[in-house]
Amino acid sequence: MKKNKGQSGYVLLEALVALLIFSLGLLGMIGFQAASSKIATDSRFRTEAAMLADELLAKMSASTISTVESDYAVGGAKFDAWLNERVKNASKLPNVTVKPTFVRSATSETMLVTLEIRWTLPGQTLADKGHEVEGVYETRALIF
Predict the structure, then answer these.
(1) Under DSSP, is residue 28 helix (H, G, I), strand (E, B) or coil?
(2) Where are the alpha helices (DSSP H) in the chain?
(3) Rounded distance, CA 73 to CA 87, Å?
(4) Average pLDDT per run of 10 along the chain, which is 144 residues long?
(5) How far is CA 141 from CA 27, 61, 138, in A?
(6) Sign of dihedral through CA atoms 50, 56, 62, 63?
(7) pTM
(8) Which of 10, 72, 85, 115 could form a disulfide with 79 if both were Cys (CB 3.0 to 4.6 A apart)?
(9) Separation CA 48–CA 98 (nearest Å)
C-alpha cells in the first residue's frame, strides 16, 4: 500500500480543531458559572435585606404609633440597638446602611414608613468610574 503524501497530518489537524471546539465550550461554561455565582450572591443579599426590613417593620408595628418616629429614626435608641445587634453584627451584608423615612398621615393613627437598605457588592466596581457597585432594597409600609 502506498500512502498519499498530500494526506499526511490530516488526523492531527482534526484533533486540533476538536480540541479548539472543546476549549471554547469549556470557556463558555466557566463564564456561565461565574455569572450564575454573581447572580446567586446578589439574590442572597437581596433576600437578607428583605428579611431585615420586614423585621424592623414588625418591630415598628408592635410599638405605639406615637413613639415610632422617635424610637426608630436614625439615632433613635431602638433603631440604633437593632442596627448594631442585628444588622452590623449578625448580617452578612457588606458595608450596610439603613435609612428609615417617616411620613405622617392626616390622622395620628397611621404613618407611612419607607426603609432603604444599601450595601456594597464585593468585588464589583464600575470600570469607567472606579466606584463600588451598591445593592439597594427599598420597601414601604403603612403602620397603624
Answers:
(1) helix
(2) 10-62, 65-72, 77-82
(3) 15
(4) 65 92 95 91 93 96 92 94 93 93 88 95 67 90 92
(5) 46, 10, 10
(6) negative
(7) 0.75
(8) 72
(9) 13
